[in-house]
Amino acid sequence: MQVNLMDFWPRILEATNQTLLMVGISLLAATLIGLPLGIALVVTKDGGLLENKPIFNALSSVVNFFRSIPFIILLVAILPITRFIVGSSIGTAAAVVPLVIFSAPYIARLVESSLLEVKSGVIEAAEAMGATPWQIIARVYIPEALSSIVLNLTIATIGLVGASAMAGFVGGGGLGDLAISYGYQRFETDIMIATVLLLVVIVQITQTIGNVVSKKIRRQ
Amino acid sequence: MIEFEGVSKIYEHNGNELRAVDQVDLSVNKGEIFGVIGYSGAGKSTLVRLVNLLEYPSEGRLLVDGEDLTQLSKPELRKVRKRIGMIFQHFNLLESKTVRHNVAFPLAISGVPKKDIDARVEEILEFVGLSDKARQYPDQLSGGQKQRVGIARALATSPDILLCDEATSALDPETTKSILKLLRRVRDEYNITILMITHEMNVVREVCDRIAVMEHGRVIEQGSIFDLFSQPEHPTTKNFVRTVMENEIPASILEGIENRGASRHIYRVTFVNESAGQPVLSGVSKSFEVEVNVLFGQITELQGIPFGHLVVELQGEDKEIVRAIDSIQRSVTVQEVKAHAG
Ligand SMILES: Nc1ncnc2c1ncn2[C@@H]1O[C@H](COP(=O)(O)OP(=O)(O)O)[C@@H](O)[C@H]1O
Ligand SMILES: [Mg+2]
After folding, report:
1. CA–CA separation, A51 vs A55, rounded Å?
2. Does ligand 1 come within 6 angstroms of the Cβ of B38?
3. Which domains does chain A have, with CATH numbers?
4. Rounded distance from Cα A28 to ligand 2 centre (Å)
């Protein structure tokens, strides 16, 4: 049974939409969680602006815990939580929950490493000028690290594109799901190639946008 | 203006105590440029960082304008910090912001209205000579220009005190000179008290009124720049003086003195500015029955004033020599050089 690629086009388009939707929403939600988490990790660290060992250790352990679970296992393990949050354990919305839980701690670590690149001397200069911790976070840490944070978010986005392919497992749809269910399981090689090529294009575009934006920000 | 009273800073180093600053007593007067010199690791950076409480003292008391900052609440401390500017060896500018925004930063975080910020930034950039660079980013500037931005930023809030942590150590000699000149203008025109630390003797020689020498966290010697240059006591101070001026009599000359025996009269004549040695000495040979023989000499500049010393041998009758010394001692410092002591 050979499926014509042209006839199949609407299906590919829908899957692309699903992928972009899953990745977009997950990225947004994961950044909203990961960014403050990353900031919290940096400022509570030993010698940080608001040094606080218990909080740092707690946050760091939680992040490590979620980062150590393989995505495919996370996907299944949190089904009950997913059902609780989105009211269903299948569908595109359901796929977003594990994607967020998967990438938020990752983004937190990426943000942490970006912020740690800010020279301690610059932070100290701001302290010496009488800046409050919040002012230092908002006016020094974030603007100084933003270009690097954008590059790191690009990496996280591409990771999400990859992870979203597995999200087909919970009926999330998307290009990865399409490639597996048609291309791999039904031996429709050209569909598999087409979807994979699309994924390649998405990743390329993401990286290009990330690079351009990051460069722009360095000189806003 | 800044008073250290038995101040120490102790770090724990895997169980061991490290006294980075050890029982320091210092007093920096208002409007003074005070230099702290010492080798790397002497505790200089820790010392300045204590002043604005970037480091918390472990012992002793530190008063800034009569106030013990450790007694202040955090908001109060931040307020005081706005009156203490600080510049750094590596400038520590915000790379993502233009020169203008860097200088505006301390004003912006104090909630100064935008109009006032713009006016102040313009004024202060003019002062440091960077008006034409306002819209550039730090990585488009040379080291000297970056430090000028650092100085402008530190001065933006019109502080009373400026702390300089190795402010010229990353700069070449020419740029160092121009930055030191600027710092002098900061003091002269704004009457700001400057505490600067450095490991370079030519820096303190250029601008400091008084200096303290630090070693192993302790202040081992302090005094006016002229005192420390003319009569350094501690070996470390002598080493520092020697980096810009040979103070010891060279061995070959010493040998000559020793060979000639103890009957010779060798003196070290230290002179400053108008008390310049030559006229004084030539006057001596005219007024007294002594002959002056210069063995060794060195002249340098302290704060733009010539400073130096000559090692001379006086030949003549003992009585005449005593009278001659007596006469020149009114305008210059004279010390007898013992053949064995050097
Ligand atoms: N935060 C710190 N923790 C532990 N030791 C420190 C710390 N800061 C400085 N020191 C130590 O204190 C000593 C003095 O350092 P520092 O003040 O930086 O010297 P300097 O500026 O004269 O080179 C050094 O031995 C240094 O290793
Ligand atoms: Mg230092």
Report:
1. 9
2. yes
3. 5-218 (1.10.3720.10)
4. 44
Structure tokens at A23: 């990745």
What backbone phi and psi angles, to 5 degrees, belong to B315? -115, 135
Among A96-105, B14-23, B78-87, B321-330, the range scoring the smallest mean pLDDT is: B321-330
CA distances from A4 to A8, A12, B142, B172 (A): 6, 12, 64, 72
Task: Tell whether ligand 1 has an atom less than 6 A from the beta carbon of residue B42.
Answer: yes
Q: Do B78 and A132 touch (CB under 8 A)?
A: yes
Burial A201-217 (b: 16+ CB within 10 A, else e): ebeeebeeebeebbeeb
Q: What is the pLDDT of residue B278?
A: 59
Q: What is the pTM of this model?
A: 0.86
Q: H or E stretch including B292?
A: strand B290-302
Q: Is some CB atom of chain A closer than 8 A to the CB atom of B106?
A: yes
Give the DSSP per-residue string, A38-83.
Answer: HHHHHHHSTT-TT--HHHHHHHHHHHHHHHTS-HHHHHHHTHHHHH
Q: If you measure from the C-alpha of residue B166 to the centroid of ligand 2, how many angstroms do you get, rounded to a whole number? A: 7
Residue A55 has pLDDT above 70, yes or no: yes
Considering only B21-25, B90-94, B263-267, which range has the smallest mean pLDDT?
B263-267
Fold of B251-336: Alpha-Beta Plaits (3.30.70)
Nearest-10 crossing angle of helices A79-86, A92-116 = 100
**Cα dist from B49 to B21, B46, B156, B192, whole Å:** 11, 5, 20, 18
* Three-state DSSP state, A176: helix
Tokens of B174: 């020419």
How confident is the model over A16-37, as a mean pLDDT?
Answer: 94
pLDDT in tens, B271-297: 776 655 556 777 787 888 888 888 888
Angle made by CA atoms A210, A212, A216, in degrees to the nearest 5: 115
What confidence category does residue B341 fall into, taking pLDDT thresholds of 50, 70 and 90?
very low
CATH tag for B2-244 (out of 3.40.50.300, 2.40.50.140, 3.40.120.10, 1.10.540.10)? 3.40.50.300
The distance of Cα A100 from the centroid of its chain, to the nearest Å, equals: 7
Is there a shared CATH topology between the B2-244 domain and the B251-336 domain? no
Burial of residue A83 (number of CB atoms within 10 Å: 0-12, 13-18, 19+):
middle
Q: Bridge-partner residues for B63, per DSSP?
A: B3, B68
> Do B299 and B311 touch, CB atoms closer than 8 A?
no
The complex's ipTM works out to 0.85
The domain locations on chain B are 2-244, 251-336
A91 phi, psi to nearest 5 deg: 105, 170
Amino acid letter, residue B307? F
